[in-house]
Design a protein that fits this description.
Keywords: Hydrolase, Protease, Serine protease. With about 475 residues, this protein is α+β, with helices and mostly antiparallel strands. The protein is about 35% helix and about 20% strand. A hairpin with a 6-residue loop joins β13 (about 265-270) and β14 (about 280). The termini are far apart.
């Protein structure tokens, strides 16, 4: 039996080596990484083949080869960081649909931590958001099935389903003595990417819920409408990126370009391959998805100069942080709210055979001034965590296997965000006793939105100070 297993191991290692060389031959030539793949980890591949053989011969039930290999691929990617993943044909298709702003499900961004599903952010105007699911919630059961032991993809598949069907989520929430049970009804999720309104004449409010294919165009339409509705010249604008989990990179560039000077650097990326090194600027070639009309060309000129405040919180991630970082570095907008999520890594979708793909982390994002967003986030100019009811302490830095901030590694400095986000249980209990947790989601942009009220008052104060300086200069 042992000789047989050894033979199987050697054959399996040979097959793997041959397949890897054949599949990667052209990629090696193109990307100039020959030296990286000249030596294969033979001992580790032998161990892998031995485990494969043992499962095939000794596991309590027969297992198909396809399942074992697929799970091995899943394990390879999941073990890298929280954002790399294997996408089967169904998941790959839903990812493509999701970027267009319509998909089925509950409407939550999730990750896996300690074998449980952790909520990164509920998406606004979805069943999860309306039910009161919050950032930081831990899902321990889906219907009657425990999450422990599932992969993230398995859990997501269970939460998806036909519209109008019910699902029960059992959740552990910080500050709650007992698990909470939420019964939700699945829906076709249609996300309104851009929302806008006049708070009062001269003061506009624009909220971006997610960065989709048409977000830049929708923003341009919203700005044009706001200017036409205001009976007085525009005095200030609030851009709301709270609980915006991100989305498409080119849409983030488009939103930034609406407010920044032409050709200004918005974000750059650094990775191991040449393809992963990019500089994206406030220029149509970086945000138009096809050769068409520049939807930002007809915007009022004052949109580049009017006083502006951008609202962020712990649910502002990825593309949201790119926009906030660019506006902050150019001093184009005051950033107000709480520390952002810190998701500063680039995921590239790499299509494979059979309509599958891998989502692979290939680079880090940097703001125009060279600050890495990864595991750190954007620090607001005006820190205000008291009114941040919808954002908990969860950040990228709290996720298992998160990619480190390489700037902190090179300087030897450690992020203090972990300390803020991982209080002792005693401190946590004291805070919980002082302030009961609100289960009802606060509607951003409503009359109850305290941070928005503070932002408008700050804009008015800036306007008064500007008038005072002008009057003083004229008098002098």
């Amino acid at each position: 039996m042992r000789n047989f297993m050894n033979k199987i191991s050697l054959v399996f290692v040979g097959i793997i080596a041959g397949v890897m060389v054949s599949l990667n031959f052209s990629a090696i030539a193109d990307k100039e990484i020959k030296q990286e793949l000249q030596t294969l980890p033979i001992e580790e591949l032998r161990t892998f083949s031995q485990v494969f053989g043992r499962i095939k011969s000794d596991y309590v039930e027969p297992v198909e080869d396809k399942k074992l290999i697929t799970e091995a691929i899943n394990g390879m990617l999941v073990g890298l960081d929280p954002h790399s993943a294997f996408l089967d044909s169904e998941e790959y298709k839903e990812l493509q649909i999701g970027t267009q702003g319509e998909f089925g499900g509950l409407g939550i961004q999730v990750t896996m931590e300690d074998g449980l599903v952790k909520v990164i952010s509920p998406i606004e105007d979805t069943p999860a958001y309306r039910a009161g699911i919050k950032t930081g919630d831990l899902i321990i059961k889906i219907d009657d099935t425990a999450v422990k032991g599932m992969t993230l993809n398995d859990a997501i598949k269970r939460m998806r389903g036909k519209p109008d069907t019910s699902i029960a989520l059992t959740i552990i929430r910080e500050g709650e003595a007992e698990p909470l049970i939420f019964t939700l009804v699945r829906d076709v999720i249609k996300i309104e990417s851009v929302k806008s309104k006049l708070i009062e004449p001269g003061y506009a409010y624009v909220r971006i819920t997610q960065f989709q294919e048409r977000t830049g165009e929708n923003l341009a339409e919203a700005i044009t409408k706001l200017y036409s509705e205001s009976k007085v010249p525009m005095k200030g604008m609030v851009l709301d990126l709270r609980n915006d989990p991100g989305g498409l990179l080119n849409s983030a560039v488009a939103v930034s370009a609406a407010f920044l000077p032409s050709n200004a650097l918005v974000v750059y990326t650094e990775g191991r391959t040449n393809d992963a090194k990019m500089q994206l600027r406030a220029n149509p070639e970086y945000y138009l998805r096809s050769t068409g009309r520049d939807f930002l060309a007809g915007l009022p000129q004052s949109i580049k100069t009017i006083p502006m405040i951008t609202l962020v919180n712990g649910g502002s991630a990825s593309a949201s942080e790119i926009v906030a970082g660019a506006l902050q570095d150019y001093k184009r907008s005051i950033i107000m709210g709480s520390q952002t999520f810190g998701k500063g890594s680039v995921q590239t979708i790499l299509p494979l055979s059979n309509n599958t793909a891998i989502k692979l982390t290939t680079a880090r994002y940097y703001t125009p001034n060279g600050q890495s967003i990864q595991a750190k986030g954007i620090t607001p100019d005006i820190l205000d965590e008291d009114t941040d009811n919808n954002s908990r302490l969860l950040r990228e830095v709290d996720l298992n296997r998160h990619l480190n901030n390489n700037q902190e590694e090179s300087t030897g400095k450690k992020s203090t965000l972990k300390k803020k986000g991982t209080e002792s249980s005693k401190e946590s209990k004291n805070k919980t006793n002082k302030k009961p947790i609100n289960h009802e989601p606060m509607e951003f942009g409503s009359s109850d939105d305290q941070l928005l009220t503070k932002a408008i008052n700050h804009l008015k104060s800036m306007s008064q100070k500007s008038k005072h300086k002008t009057a003083k200069a004229t008098k002098g």
